[in-house]
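Fig. S4 source data, part A: sequence.
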Amino acid sequence: MGTESHSVRAQQLEEKIGQRQARVGIVGLGYVGLPLGGGR
């Protein structure tokens, strides 16, 4: 994967986050994952 592809993906992710359309997955329900998974 080149840096150009990475920057394009990062820009797309930023746009989705700004539009509140990004989907985020949390892996693990440890000390950090459980509280993060519960909040909206």
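Fig. S4 source data, part B ends here. Residues 3-38 form one domain.
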